[in-house]
Amino acid sequence: MFSTRTLGIAAGIAGSLLIAGAASAQEQLKFAHVYESSEPYQKWALWAAEQIAERTDGRYTMEVYPASSLGKESDINQGLTLGTVDIIYTGTAFAGNYYGPLAIGGAPYIFSGFDHWQSYKDSELFEELAEGYKEKTGNKIVGMTYYGERHVTANKPIRTPDDMKGLKIRVPDAPLYLMFPKGVGANAAPIAFAEVYLALQTGTVDAQENPLPTILAKKFYEVQDTINLTGHITESLITVIGAPLWNRLSDEDKTIFTEIFKEAAAGATDDVREAEDRLRTEFVTMGETVITDVDRDAFRAALQPSLTGPSATWTKEQYDRLQALAD
């Protein structure tokens, strides 16, 4: 017979093992991105973190690291494969460094507007490209968020491609972003996102390009007095789960994660669209000059040859299929 004391010790050990087992069963994930805490992407990433903890009964928790705190965009893309980060937001141009056809969604004037972008997001073409990216990298795309139309800020009006000639413009550090400045005779300067404000302030570059909500969040309006509504890229952010995490998720958890990040992408998309509409007039009240009469047809014509030229990392057939989605 066991003594009461022996049984008590055994029960204590068993309880400790149960607690240790529960602790070891909980996994904390890292979600990294380069955007400010004030932006919708951070808001919805935090929402996703809450939902992951709730819907997995605490088996997974997620810490969100904004504002390049875990590295610039090229770093966090590499981190997915290395397992140093688990989930990221990234532009399709950066993902296109690993699987070229996926970059098509970030090409200049590839979309006629938001409805065209939405059709692409929900299309078989995008599903095929996302699967091609997964086959190449092992990483899984689980959401696509509307990032907004990219516009050029400078200290002068820009209405036609001729106004861009010789302009030194900062672009993200991914090859696809060279297509726009090259097509209009500007000089591209790839600079990490976190360094753009200082580059504008010191005159290292003459201009930069980003959507209106980003221009606000990064305070570029403080060092550039003119916002030119070129709308040259209808940009997306994809939410990507790295292969090391994706491969160890159960089928049930894969479904949970995918559902959560798709819902988060839809919420962020709505917020970005609302902000775009509001900021067109809000920037004027803040003292900015907003150039609305940009000749987009002239810009589109200048860029058209590039979309199926040697710089394209997608096929003509993929380009044609994407354009057909505008019909």
Please tell me about this protein's structure:
- It holds the Pfam family DctP.
- The protein is globular and about 60 Å long.
- β5 (168-171), α7 and β6 (187-190) form a beta-alpha-beta unit.
- The protein is of the alpha/beta class and 327 residues long.
- It has one domain (27-324): D-Maltodextrin-Binding Protein, domain 2 (3-Layer(aba) Sandwich).
- The protein has helices at residues 4-25, 40-55, 73-82, 92-95, 114-121, 124-137, 179-184, 196-201, 212-217, 243-248, 251-285, 296-303, 316-324; strands at residues 27-32, 60-65, 87-91, 140-154, 168-171, 187-190, 207-210, 226-241, 289-291.
Outline the secondary-structure elements.
Blueprint: H1 4-25, E1 27-32, H2 40-55, E2 60-65, H3 73-82, E3 87-91, H4 92-95, H5 114-121, H6 124-137, E4 140-154, E5 168-171, H7 179-184, E6 187-190, H8 196-201, E7 207-210, H9 212-217, E8 226-241, H10 243-248, H11 251-285, E9 289-291, H12 296-303, H13 316-324
What are the main properties of this structure?
globular; 9-stranded mixed sheet; 9 strands; 327 residues; single chain; 13 helices; alpha/beta; TRAP_DctP
